[in-house]
Amino acid sequence: MALEAPASPQSTRHHAGVNRGDRAWNGLLLGLGLAVLALAAVIIGMLLHASQPLWKAMSPWQFLKSTDWDPANDSFGALPFIYGTLVTSGLALLLAVPVGLGLSIFLTELAPKQLRPFVAFGVELLAGIPSVVYGLWGLFTLAPLLREHVQPFLAKVLGPIPGIGALFRGAPLGLGFLSAGVILAIMILPTICAVTTEVVKTVPLPLREASLALGATRWEMVRLSVLPYSKAGILGAVLLGLGRALGETMAVTMVIGNNPEIHASLFAAGYSLPSVIANEFAEATDASHTAALASLALVLFAITFLMNAGARVLVRRSKHTAGAHG
Amino acid sequence: MNAYAGRKVVNLVMMVLCGLAALGALLPLGSVLWLVVSHGVAGLNFTFFTALPKPVGEAGGGVGNAVVGTLQIVALACVIGLPLGVGAGVFLAEKGDSALGNAVRFTAEVLSGVPSIVVGIVAYGLVVVPMKRFSAIAGAVALAILMVPTLARGTEELVRLVPRSIREAALGLGVPEWKTSLRVVLRTALGGVATAALLAIARATGETAPLLFTALNNQYWNVRPDQPTASLTVQIFNYAISPYDDWHQKAWSAALVLLLLVGGLNLTARALTRNRLKGAR
Amino acid sequence: MSTPEAKLNVTHLNAGYGDKAIIRDVNIAVPANSVLAVIGPSGCGKSTFLRCLNRMHELGPGAHSEGKILLDGLDINSGDVDPVLLRRRVGMVFQRPNPFPTMSIFDNVAAGLKLNRVKGNHAEVVEKSLKQAALWDEVKDRLNASALSLSGGQQQRLCIARALAIEPEVLLMDEPASALDPIATAKVEQLIHELKARYTIVIVTHNMQQAARVSDHTAFFYMGELVEHDKTETIFTRPSKPRTEDYVTGKFG
């Protein structure tokens, strides 16, 4: 049934009226396609244009290196926000990847069949909750929980350890890098789980049977047949989750503590690229302030662009491998 | 048999860990839903839905204008974003097997990952600056930009699913290509596209960040698209970060309203899918 | 005919998926160190029968089975038999080669050894298995190459080596040469001859000449029923059931 695409209008239709209709249609479609490209150009162009005034005052390298954020005194530095974004996203990955993988394996391999649709539905619900609602919950439920129970516990148990103990020292505020990281983890969990599940489902049945026939337990089958085969795709899922975490705004803004400083401890209050923009842009009257915030947006755009492009390539490549083997 | 026993233990442990992972995912879900409902329900009453917010210190008031504002902004966003997104998707499905098509597809995929706050800044520059004021239309533009990439990709997949045979049947009857695409192929894919659109709308309804400096906020009723407009999400944010307890209560209630709205849209999308898959094709 | 030395003894086996029965009331005994060929037209249930013997059948959606399958007198379907351990004793080679794509040739063959925590010198076992599978000479200089660098026929022999490495007692082969060229097929058939001394083999094949060449006994399945089971020579020269005769003379199937 695989016939070639219908012949192009020009070669088979000679009716002037029909030709015009097809030409208009093709023109419309082309326009819409180009509109997408134009959109990308507009986004990049607008960001560059809006951040331009800043480059008169300082070089990009200076901007990225500086830790001083003091709009009132025209002092701008991106580092605390880059730091905050990276720390919270890194923490989110650390928490969400094992859980997301485990959840995905639970859904595809280990859970009794009757349970699967319910758990899958739950994950969908997780994905559908708006960011600001997570922020609300984070502010009034998660942060107090961390402040009163989790942080003191961590400080007691892990604080004294030399080296990584530095991550768990300081006054437990509740708000800060830790809360933001945990909330981000919850929010990117559905992404990691969904993409991993997609990839795991492409593992061919004969490959699974190969390990089972050798006498593998269910988990061993996952270890031998499923995970090695899905490596690239899982990495893609992780990068996609990271991309989402980097750009997440509201929930992080509400629990990160809004402190443009770099601190080693996860208990400290910090700031992220999206958060500072969310908090300050509406009131930024100063041209240089606006330009600085737009520059931060540009940095954020660049980071997430790279993450997402890399992720999509990986996921696509892993699915192609599936085609080649299947 | 000791090695065997060990392997069984490992198997069991891994299954338990994966089960715990599932629990770990569902617990926060349960907590969020439970708390939004239990805290929010207390503040829900007729006034809440219909009244304007009161200033600090005064009791009562509601989020009527925010609900209307959200509906207004999202509706405007649909007018801009739906045709553009679905149209781009049709382009990708019909003409997408080319270098241009691949470029557009890649762009759409990458654009879908642009943080919403960045899109807000773009909308700010595109609309707020020339108009010299915050407005609903600026917010709508931001939301529309967010809708387009995912809609385009989703539409493309759905249109590509329409079997060749249907297209060829129409062409064979002498129907011109453009009419075939529009009235035959698209109509077949319409159910799926509607679902995709509903999901995009649901996501747009829940957006906050891009509205913060495009539509801004408004304490009063507003139907003019060229004025700052309240929205449910921004209102929740403002109430939540305020230092007042009764505004916190309002935040929970507004969150409940938002969840019902977004949830309703999502459930409708699911129901549509189920009907579509069950019905005759 | 069930004799006391039967390696496998199947009585009243029914199996299917959901409410569809695929095989009905199968009774058959397989003596140790012999080769049983299972023949029949497509869809007659021969693969299902085979997969019951190492409890792979039960992994399918909605799968069910009733009846007794005794391995050395032990009912493999009884509650206290772990399929994991059963499959160590009853190995399987599949229709299409399915080597582990991310592993080397060596690691593929050794996979079962590592899995089952078999102690000892794996390299020796790998060499022995590859020799048994008539693949050693072709791969001995590139044991660390990816398994995917082998041709289809070589990959299938690799899978045979992998199955042999853990020294099962019974080897189940599901049309093992159907995806192979004639030369590779000949090698696999030669292999079966040699393996017979140490293993009990049940081979499903749609190729009657192959069945006649390699097996001691043949079982003819038709529409889920075991129509006739006898010495191979008898089945192909003097079958007792008319349907068997029709099939082996090529009147259908």
CATH architectural type of chain C = 3-Layer(aba) Sandwich
**Global Rg of chain A:** 25 Å
Q: What is the CATH architecture descriptor of chain A? A: Orthogonal Bundle
> Total strand count of chain C, please?
10
Structural class of chain A: mainly alpha
The largest inter-chain interface, given as chain pair and residues per side, is: A-B, 92 and 92 residues
The helix/strand series of chain C, from N terminus to C terminus, equals: EEEHEEHEHHHHEHEHEEHH
Q: What is the straight-line distance between the termini of chain A?
A: 22 Å
Gap from first CA to last CA of chain C: 27 Å
How many beta strands in the DSSP annotation of chain A? 0
According to CATH, the homologous superfamily of chain C is: P-loop containing nucleotide triphosphate hydrolases
Task: Indicate the multimeric state.
Answer: heterotrimer
| Biggest β-sheet description of chain A | none
- Could you give the order of the helices and strands of chain A? HHHHHHHHHHHH
What does this 3D model show about the protein?
The complex is a heterotrimer of chains A (326), B (281) and C (253). Chain A is an all-alpha fold and 326 residues long. Chain A has one domain: MetI-like (MetI-like fold), CATH 1.10.3720. Chain A is 74% helix and 0% strand. Chain A has twelve helices and no strands. Chain A is globular. With 281 residues, chain B is mainly alpha-helical. Chain B has a single domain, classed as Orthogonal Bundle (MetI-like fold). In chain B, helix 1 crosses helix 10, helix 3 runs parallel beside helix 6 and helix 4 crosses helix 6. Chain B is globular. In chain C, helix 3 packs across helix 4, helix 3 runs parallel beside helix 6 and helix 4 packs across helix 6. Chain C has ten helices and ten strands. Chain C has a single domain, classed as P-loop containing nucleotide triphosphate hydrolases (Rossmann fold, 3-Layer(aba) Sandwich), CATH 3.40.50. The relative contact order of chain C is 0.18. In chain C, 35% of the residues lie in helices and 26% in strands. Chain C has 253 residues and is of the alpha/beta class. A six-stranded mixed sheet of chain C has the order 6-7-8-3-9-10, with helices on both faces. A four-stranded antiparallel sheet of chain C has the order 2-1-4-5, with helices on one face. Classes of the chains: A mainly alpha (326), B mainly alpha (281), C alpha/beta (253). Chains B and C meet through helix 1 of B and loops of C.
